[in-house]
Every structure is written in structure tokens, then in C-alpha cells.
């Protein structure tokens, strides 16, 4: 009786000890980014794709390094460029293909990307400029839906010529959504 009680106590001790030993490392990695470090870094860390966010904002010479609203605008403009390029690419593929099913899928995707490029992203950019972050967030969700719809169109089919581009778009849009959410809650 006694020895088994003692035995469980020592296991408990070991657990407590290992927790104490592990704590300092978690704490020190936690405390890193909260001083006056780069605001771009701080913001990108709150998005799901830090590297993507940081490379876009750091590589753009126009990106304001101290203004989250400006950063959101740079992201949306970047998505706009990317989406425009993808739309051109889709139209190129439509011209080249003789596969009827593929053509239908591509047509569907063109119809998803056209409103994203022409209306949704420009509206998101306007809304951000005007400080209407709730509406900006709504537009970004809309862009997400369009890209997802295009991507789904290829699920189960043998060719998915847009999957890389849709994937990048989804990530970019996720990053923009996270930054706008920060503005909304800020
Ligand atoms: C789209 O975004 C990806 C990732 O940032 C980038 O590698 C690619 O060059 C972009 N394309 C255009 C046309 O902006």
C-alpha cells in the first residue's frame, strides 16, 4: 500500500519537474515578437501564411511598413494582379483546348474570376481605403467563394490545370482576410 502510494507520488513529481523544465523555452519563444520589431512581421504572424505575407509586403517598395491599412491595400492589389493574370491564363487555355469537358470547366472558372477581378477586389480596395472594413471583409469572403467554386469544378476530373493558381489565390485571399480582420477588430 505504502510503496505504491509513494510510487505514484514520484511519478507526479517527475511530471511536475518536467513541466517546470519545459516552461522557460515556451515562454522565451513567446516573448520574442512583441517589442518594436517590424510591424509587417507582427501582422504577417497573425495570418495563416506568414512567409507569403512577409515576402509580398517586404518586396513591395510601396508597402507602408507602419500602416496596417496600407498593408491590406497592398495585399488586395497583389491579389488583383494575380487574379487578372489567372483570368488571362484561363482565357488562353480556353482558346487552346478542344476538350469539351475541359472547356466547360474553364468557362465556369472564367465566370468565377471575372467578377473577382472586375468588381469584388476593386470594391474591397475601395472599402479598405474608406475604412469600411466590415464591407471589405464581406468582399474578400466573396472572392474566396468564387475561387473555391472554380477549384471544385475540377474535383474528380483527370486534369486540373488551375489547381496551382487557385491554391495561390486561396492563400493570398486568406492572408488578406486575416489582415482585414485585424483592422476590423483593431
Ligand atoms: C501570384 O502570386 C504568387 C505568389 O505570391 C507569385 O509567385 C506569382 O508571381 C504571382 N503572379 C502574378 C502574376 O502576380
UniProtKB/TrEMBL annotation:
Key words of the record: Disulfide bond, Signal
Gene that specifies this protein: Vigan.01G510900
Alphabetized Gene3D superfamilies for the sequence: Invertase/pectin methylesterase inhibitor family protein
Pfam family, one: PMEI
InterPro entries documented for this protein: C/VIF1, Invertase/methylesterase_inhib, PCW_Enzyme_Inhibitor, Pectinesterase_inhib_dom
Domain named Pectinesterase inhibitor: residues: 35-179
Similarity section: Belongs to the PMEI family.
Organism: Vigna angularis var. angularis
Protein name (database record): Pectinesterase inhibitor domain-containing protein
SMART domains reported for this sequence: PMEI
UniProt GO MF annotations: enzyme inhibitor activity
Signal peptide: 1-28
Keyword Disulfide bond: yes
Amino acid at each position: 500500500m505504502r510503496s505504491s502510494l509513494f510510487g505514484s507520488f514520484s511519478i507526479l513529481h517527475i511530471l511536475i519537474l518536467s513541466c517546470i523544465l519545459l516552461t522557460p523555452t515556451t515562454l522565451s519563444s513567446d516573448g520574442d515578437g512583441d517589442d518594436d520589431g517590424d510591424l509587417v512581421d507582427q501582422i504577417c504572424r497573425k495570418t495563416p501564411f506568414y512567409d507569403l505575407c512577409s515576402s509580398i509586403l517586404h518586396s513591395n517598395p510601396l508597402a507602408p511598413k507602419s500602416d496596417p491599412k496600407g498593408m491590406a491595400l497592398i495585399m488586395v492589389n497583389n491579389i488583383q494582379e494575380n487574379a487578372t493574370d489567372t483570368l488571362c491564363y484561363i482565357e488562353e487555355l480556353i482558346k487552346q483546348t478542344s476538350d469539351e469537358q475541359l472547356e466547360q470547366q474553364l468557362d465556369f472558372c472564367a465566370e468565377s474570376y471575372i467578377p473577382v477581378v472586375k468588381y469584388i477586389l476593386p470594391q474591397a480596395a475601395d472599402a479598405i481605403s474608406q475604412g469600411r472594413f466590415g464591407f471589405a471583409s464581406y468582399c474578400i469572403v466573396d472572392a474566396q467563394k468564387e475561387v473555391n467554386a472554380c477549384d471544385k469544378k475540377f474535383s474528380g476530373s483527370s486534369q486540373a490545370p488551375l489547381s496551382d493558381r487557385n491554391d495561390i489565390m486561396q492563400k493570398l485571399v486568406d492572408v488578406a482576410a486575416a489582415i482585414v480582420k485585424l483592422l476590423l477588430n483593431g
